């Protein structure tokens, strides 16, 4: 029996609620706590609560009433706007709110779209995305399942999303169908581009016999997917190819986990990793997965080769962007790294396994600057220092204690990691006075900064309603 890996988890676009993907920056969390405290203070001065009479209301209470009135006016004004928007506009607005983590607002637009057209595929898919973001997995399965029933042979996205919600062979079948549709979409796009070029040349010589373009002959699902990509561009085709490669990585992961007891599981796993690399040799995730596969086979030298190849495909550019030396227009300013936070964490684990500590530090420091409230990041920084011996124990202790502090703010769901963290902290002992001084936080400054941000938000709200 071939044993699958337990080190890394790849390509899971939708992670369980409370995990890394949906994690919000610290400022939003603390801002929310500040608002709660403010609300409590405001409630104590509400005349209906007996705090003071209407004639003696303080400035905060008056501002509170103004805010409530402004919010009521905005809410009242928003209702008829739903009716005036087309279904496509409703879904576009819903996606905007999803991207901004305003899920309650997004839900209103999704519900209105589904109310109008309950079997409209884009509405079902957008609603599924919202359900996934809010942890409503049953709702996501329902929406995706309905979309698959209505349009079984078109649209790869719903299959790839459903695959991540299913297990075992059901997940495998969804991935395989998604890959099949992706391949067909690329082939049709290439054929359309070739025929379009031929039609253009023919039209220049003799004129066209009819007004139908080859792209119009594509199935609706394929046309919709092409519309999502830059028209007639190498970048659009490259994005679809990357999706196939990443989906192949996900199938390989299945053969390392859910399907590890199947016959030929190891061979199937290797075949899909090779397909991922052959399909897109520029996909760092494919090489990263091969590195993990080699670790399972207890081939650390081969694993080191593949993980360094993976790192070379993204880390240098990421560092250029971070340092401000990258050329303008050479990267996506919103998505500056092709790999997700969890995948880069997995890369760091693999680097530690093959004792490439310096590269692991670069990866982890980048992650900590991107989001400093992930326990795993600080734990791994401590662990790689711990593994390097006595000279690095002070640094290890500092990182482990920081990981514990982060766990209080943003608890990790990995109980084994937390247990190991506690054992290591007990072994290394408490922080020194010097370390405590470095870790000390000026709470007054933090509160002042949060108050300033809250005041700015309040002013913006008042300006929006004026």
Mean pLDDT, rounded to whole units?
80
Q: Give the helix/strand class.
A: mainly alpha
Task: Count all strands and give the number.
Answer: 0
Strand percentage: under 5%
What distance lies between the first and last C-alpha atoms, to the nearest angstrom? 69 Å
Oligomer: single chain
Helix share of residues? over 70%
Alpha plus pi helix count: 21
- Major β-sheet profile: none
- Which of globular, elongated, flat, extended, rod-shaped describes the shape? globular
Helix and strand pattern: HHHHHHHHHHHHHHHHHHHHH
Would you write up a description of this structure?
The chain is mostly helical and 466 residues long. It is built from 21 helices and no strands. Helix 1 (26-44) packs across helix 21 and helix 12 crosses helix 15. The longest helix has 39 residues, at 168-206. The chain starts with 25 loop residues before the first helix and ends with a helix.
Short description:
The protein is mostly helical. It has helices spanning 26-44, 59-84, 87-99, 103-116, 121-133, 137-150, 157-163, 168-206, 220-228, 234-256, 265-279, 284-296, 300-312, 315-323, 341-353, 357-370, 375-387, 393-409, 415-428, 433-439, 443-465.
Set down the secondary structure blueprint.
Layout: H1 26-44, H2 59-84, H3 87-99, H4 103-116, H5 121-133, H6 137-150, H7 157-163, H8 168-206, H9 220-228, H10 234-256, H11 265-279, H12 284-296, H13 300-312, H14 315-323, H15 341-353, H16 357-370, H17 375-387, H18 393-409, H19 415-428, H20 433-439, H21 443-465
